Amino acid sequence: MTQEPEETTGQSEVEEVVDAEVVSETEPDGAADAAPSGSSGDSPEGMDADGDGSAGESAEASVEQDLNRLVEEARSQRDEYLQLAQRTKADFDNYRKRMAAESQAQVEKGRLEVVAGIIEAIDNIERVLEAAGIEQTAALEGELPTDAPITEQGVIVSYRDLHSVLRKAGVEAFVSKGEAFDPNLHEALQALPAEGIEPGVVIEEMQKGYSAGDNVIRHARVVVSQ
């Protein structure tokens, strides 16, 4: 009675050992090592590494293209702004020159208006001198007659002062009598025959002409020989 349990226990141990050997024989050799070795071969991680390298190069090329495009746009804008600045400067220079010319023209116009008024005053004084029998040359360069009436002395002084103003402005009367007729200087009022004088010569000056350098302020009104 006491020996049967011992045989049962021993038989159970033998069966467990046999089962373990059967299980170990059914597993292929190297199965435990197959998975790690396979993972170190063509694994998804290895494929991802190659893919990441290609993607990095593509991204770098894309960034470089974008950078080049931005550089070209910046250069284009720079050229546009430079051209705009140059045009603006040229326009401003032209405007400044135009305003300077207009200002100078206004000054010259005002000066001529003043000169024209002085010349008219001189014309009136010369008529007074002619009526008083006083030569214009004597009135300008001669001594002031102390025995003349005060009004006559005043006319002579005014005549000299007005001529002085014209000289300071660069305006002078030019001589026409005896000179060849020049349409740039003279205005012919009449043509008369004159013995011993060639045609086209100024034989009488009806009104003086004035000039400022090469610019004629007023043409002389003359009578010309024919």
Question: What's the SSE blueprint?
Answer:
Elements: H1 4-26, H2 31-40, H3 44-132, H4 136-141, H5 150-168, E1 172-174, E2 186-192, E3 202-207, E4 209-212, E5 215-218, E6 220-225
Parallel strand pairs: 2-6
Antiparallel strand pairs: 1-4, 3-6, 4-5
Concise synopsis of the structure shown:
The chain has helices spanning 4-26, 31-40, 44-132, 136-141, 150-168, and strands spanning 172-174, 186-192, 202-207, 209-212, 215-218, 220-225.
Which key phrases capture this entry?
5 helices, 3-stranded antiparallel β-sheet, disordered N terminus, 65% helix, 6 strands, alpha+beta, elongated, 226 residues
Describe this structure in words.
It is a single chain. This protein is an alpha+beta fold. It has helices at residues 4-26, 31-40, 44-132, 136-141, 150-168; strands spanning 172-174, 186-192, 202-207, 209-212, 215-218, 220-225. It has a three-stranded antiparallel β-sheet with strand order 1-4-5.
- Beta-strand percent range: 5-15%
Instruction: Figure out the total of helices.
Output: 5
- State the distance separating the first and last CA atoms: 186 Å
SSE pattern, N- to C-terminal: HHHHHEEEEEE
